[in-house]
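Ticket #4471: complex job returned nothing on first submit. Input attached below:
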Amino acid sequence: MSEREVISGVTRAEYCVVACADAWRGDGEVMASPFGTIPALGARLAKRTFAPDLVLTDGEAALMVGAPSISAEASELVREAPMPYRSVFDVVWSGRRHIMMMASQIDREGNQNISAVGSHAVPKVQLVGVRGAPGNSVNHPTSYWVPDHSVRTFVERVDVVCGVGYARAAAAGPGATRFHEVRQVVSNLGVFDFETPDRTMRLRSFHPGVRVEEIVAATGFTLSVPDDVAGTRLPTPEELELLRQELDPGSLRDREVQS
Amino acid sequence: MSDKRTTVDDMVGELRSGMTIGIGGWGSRRKPMAVVRAICNSGLTDLTVVAYGGPDVGLLCATGKVRKVVCGFVTLDSIALDPHWRAARQAGQVQVMEVDEGMFFLGLQAAAWRVPFLPTRAGLGSDVLGINPDLRLVRSPYGADSPYLADAADAGVELVAMPALHLDAAFVHTNRADAAGNGQVLSPDPFFDALFLGAAERRFLTTERIVSPGELADASHPLATVAVHRMLTDAVAEVPGGAHFTANPPDYGRDEAFQKEYASAAGDPAAWEAFATRYVLVDEDEYRARIEERGQ
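Support reply: We reran it on our side without changes. The output follows.
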């Protein structure tokens, strides 16, 4: 099979995996904490290729050697050090972590909501809770994964600020801004960052097969769109083989994002 | 060493309506569920429940025991959100002090260390401060001229002052314990159980099995697995299956089929009544018999 033929068969889910992997590029020896199937594959792909020093957990209470298939049984995993929840806070507050959380809502300034839709006092929809989002977002780099990009998830203003965005961090002062960074947002439609003068959301790349107008229409706020915005990069043949043969032979990725 | 053995009923008998109760474990893992069921069956009301929330919170809300919950989340792990908690919140039946998971940990730590608060960046800039208007910030007393300042950005910096979470009583469940109140966790994460006990006035331990003093550690279980020492414990009760249906490895995993039945009984009064009559509003012997009937 020629390289072109391989690439022509790349699915949307595979672009999303590569985009998530790239979020950890250059991070060095930090704990990568992915939430969701596609970020989990992204972190493992990054570790197996360009980010070998990344530290991954076994999903329970230990750090894991290597980056095996996401379908591997717990008994197949090799562990290198304990990482109970108490120690996770040591890592979070030391800054040696880059998390990719999910967001029920995310807004233009990078605020994230996983607590409640509507009023917090009596929610219209109760969500899981703020969890560690407030502390994560002001202590170490934070990215987000949104598998269902729409005007309901990309909103003008989130109902409850859990993960802290740029304007809110700035308003809270140096205690909040010193280690605050919302790195990237990856959705099923594209990749976004905050590399604008006022630190609001910008389209970084669109996934091949998605039109920019489609992304703008599915976003509930004014999105910065650079004139020269490009497509999300193609996976390399090596990345595709790793992903399809070793990391996700059961194609769990297609359950989170359909082609 | 004093013998601290007692029963779950005697433990719960010490509680009073309106108390603040800490519950160990995390999500749907190693929760002292026999105690939770006993509280559900008691006349207690208006409790404040402090927990890394799981079905303990959902059950206590569904049986009307709770006035307020202090938590960062309420999850069943394999089911993202406890639907009984969702129903109680959406009906406005319970108050919540919702804080970051790390703030929660510091609140227990502050209480256990007998200081009124501990400082943290966690919470800054988030709505945790807005939805808990009694939370306060604290300014670092170390300014630019201090010999202790390591980074200029931290001169006089404002941080969240997470208040101590004082508990009237705390309950945790471990795999093994001895009669003196030492508790052993045989799964990889001791969670924050020792801190729950340290933050509480009355400290209660339930366990799968009580063994003789000095017999907790052996060749395959180092002394470090004894996560709770006896200075943290007032009473201990042997309750085999006491964490069912939450996960308590290596003794047993989560009873996923049961948990699913529990979750799907939410939001439908008839389904809940049937579930509660069969599995909640019964004593521990009857509960165990009904779980055995299910083929567990």
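Chain A touches chain B through 47 residues (CB under 8 Å). Closing as resolved unless it happens again.
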